[in-house]
Specification:
The protein is α/β, with parallel strands linked by helices. It has twelve helices and eleven strands. It has a single domain, classed as Inosine-uridine Nucleoside N-ribohydrolase, Chain A (Alpha-Beta Complex). It starts with a strand and ends with a helix. The relative contact order is 0.17. It binds beta-D-ribofuranose (BDR) and calcium ion.
């Protein structure tokens, strides 16, 4: 059975690949796409989400959400994703956004859903997801799983301590982490194993495919190589979260306790992930630890070639 899924995103070059992977995967029944600010401003992430949904040939509604975090404005990342969020690649515009706000659209969908039936994939700052769970906590019971690309168990990528999405809204992330539903985390350590290199882009291009595959490759080619990892390539952060929903057999994981630093010191946004159960706290998160990179890129290639 395909999994009923909502994707909350801030496209974003890697969000773009994640959305296309989801739309090209029969294992996912994409019900709603919501946009949040983050990599670039909400006006741009929303326009990109609309364009990507059209590119993927999907009629799924796209709804705009938060344009700032619960406590602060977002810190953007145009230096990675380009001023237009897609590395300067220009896509044909998508249909207009559906009316209303992400938090209301998600709540409406969840209210009509059966218990434990909807998968939430969060690949931007957690603001929209946190607002849903804070506004109507009982809707958590409709959620089967929340899969997040966020956090790191060691080093951050935006401060020494914090990963970008966690840094951009730690308070919202903490609401999500403590909601009591199954949560799966794709952290920086995991996504560092799914590296998109020039050779992998060439291999994807070689698959032929249509406009979606060509656009995905064009977007991938704009992403600067990761200085942090010292490699000629970049981590495919957000698509890892979607890949977990599509093909969990590609991953290994363990259950851990995790929380996020919401203080105002240098640790703000750091995810504290107790991989060795030192704190003896109840595990609240499935931590993805390894991914089969070859399998991941094969999955991505298959999904992209399914799209027009
Ligand atoms: C995360 O931050 C964003 O820049 C990416 O889209 C991804 O969601 C990686 O830290
Ligand atoms: Ca993202």
């Amino acid at each position: 059975m395909p999994r009923a899924t909502i994707i909350d995103c801030d496209p974003g070059t890697d969000d773009a690949i994640a959305l296309l992977l989801a739309m090209g995967s029969p294992e996912i029944d994409l019900r709603l796409v919501t946009a949040v600010g983050g990599n670039v401003g909400l006006g741009i992430t929303l326009a990109n989400a609309r364009a990507l949904v059209a590119l993927g040939g999907s009629a799924v509604p796209v709804v705009g959400g938060a344009d700032r975090a619960l406590m602060r404005p977002y810190q953007e990342a145009a230096y990675v994703h380009g001023e237009n969020g897609l590395g300067g690649v220009v896509l044909p515009p998508g249909p207009p956004a559906a009316p209303g706000l992400a938090v209301d659209a998600m709540r409406a969908l969840l209210r009509q859903a059966a218990p434990d039936s909807v998968t939430l994939v969060g690949i931007g700052p957690a603001t929209n997801l946190g607002l849903v769970l804070a506004a109507e906590p009982e809707l958590a019971g409709r959620v089967a799983e929340i899969v997040l690309m966020t956090g790191a168990w060691a080093e951050g990528n935006v401060t020494p301590a914090a990963e970008f999405n966690a840094w951009n809204d730690p308070e919202a992330l903490q609401i999500v982490l403590s909601c009591g539903r199954p949560i799966t985390l794709a952290t920086l350590e995991l996504t560092a194993q799914a590296v998109c290199t020039p050779a992998r882009i060439a291999a994807l291009r070689g698959l032929g495919g249509g406009a979606a595959l060509r656009a995905a490759c064009a977007i991938e080619a704009t992403v600067p190589p990761s200085k942090r990892l010292g490699i000629d390539g970049h981590p495919e952060h957000d698509a890892c979260a979607v890949a977990w929903v599509v093909a969990p057999q590609l991953f290994t994981s363990r259950m851990v306790f995790a929380e996020v630093d919401c203080g105002n010191g240098p640790g703000r946004g750091q995810t504290l992930i107790d991989r060795w159960d030192r704190l003896k706290r109840t595990a609240n998160v499935r931590l993805l630890e390894t991914v089969d990179a070859e399998g991941f890129f094969q999955l991505l290639g298959q999904a992209l070639t399914r799209l027009a």
